[in-house]
Amino acid sequence: MLKGTCLCKDISFETSAKPQGPSMCHCGQCRKQSGGVWSSAFVNESDLTITGEVRWFDSSETAKRGSCPRCGSFLFWKAHDEDTISFALGAVDGPTGLTLSKHIFVAEKGDYYDIADDVPQKD
């Protein structure tokens, strides 16, 4: 069971499903919202229990982002036409037991850092 919370603990989430696709997103939206790179994994939406009031923001025509209205923690990413939901690995309490599988949107990464691992990269 993976469990996590936002910074103020008003929102919590948990899943007993095996998270898929652990990744680091370097897109401009994730950089602006998180202040850097955003790490996440996804599960079927029906496998994630969220407690508390999430503020959803339609960040594009294809997806929305969920955060805590009190502390601002960026916790969730959800494509409008998919039945999966991504959650912030940094918000998980304790070890995740996951291994990073990819870096995504690396063409948009900041110029102030290098990706210095052997994990696959996708533009």
From TrEMBL:
Keywords, comma-separated and alphabetical: Lyase, Metal-binding, Zinc
Residue stretches spanning the membrane: none
SUPFAM superfamilies in alphabetical order: Mss4-like
Keyword Transcription: no
Keyword Zinc belongs to the record: yes
Ranges where the CENP-V/GFA domain occurs: 2-114
PROSITE patterns: CENP_V_GFA
Single GO term (MF): carbon-sulfur lyase activity
Family assignment from sequence similarity: Belongs to the Gfa family.
PANTHER family referenced in this protein's UniProt entry, alphabetically: CENP-V_GFA DOMAIN-CONTAINING PROTEIN-RELATED, GFA DOMAIN-CONTAINING PROTEIN
Name under which the protein is recorded: CENP-V/GFA domain-containing protein
